[in-house]
Amino acid sequence: MSDSIFTRIIKRELPADIVYEDDDIIAFRDINPQAPTHVLIVPKVEIATVNDIKPEQAELIGNLVLVAQKIALDEGIAEDGFRLVVNCNRHGCQEVFHLHMHLVGGRQLRGISAS
Ligand code: 5GP
């Protein structure tokens, strides 16, 4: 199977504005930001969707939230608040099938809609 777009960013085959990296997780700014801060937090291992997360990956998945917490602080948006989003498959409007968490903030967001 060919590498995902995000694996190509991890391998530095594609450019990205990287704001955080450790052995297991990378975070970079979304190419099409929906708010002043829009960062994608991505496990380096390719997990296609939320449906594919295994129980033994629970710590990794938890660490995505801790990285989001750190980036929100670094970006100065923690106190005002922000949104974390993980889209899954067609009804969730997932476009990139390499698990990622959106960190969105820096402006007043609208209430979450079911539509
Ligand atoms: P999804 O709909 O899968 O949850 O979100 C995928 C996100 O990845 C979109 O917000 C899109 O703008 C972003 N994206 C797609 N391709 C690239 C890319 O090559 N670089 C960066 N930085 N973001 C990308």
Question: What's the short version?
Answer:
With 115 residues, this protein is an alpha+beta fold. It has a single domain, classed as HIT-like (HIT family, subunit A), CATH 3.30.428.
Oligomer: single chain
Largest sheet: 5 strands, antiparallel
Task: Please tell me the total number of domains.
Answer: 1
How many helical stretches?
2
Note the run of SSEs as H and E: HEEEHEE
The CATH architecture classification is 2-Layer Sandwich
CATH class: Alpha Beta
Structural class: alpha+beta
Shape, please?
Answer: globular
Number of strands: 5
Please state how the strands of the largest beta sheet are arranged side by side. Answer: 1-2-3-5-4
Percentage of residues in strands? 15-25%
**What distance separates the N and C termini?**
33 Å
CATH superfamily: HIT-like
Q: Provide the low-confidence segments as ranges.
A: none
Unique ligands? guanosine-5'-monophosphate
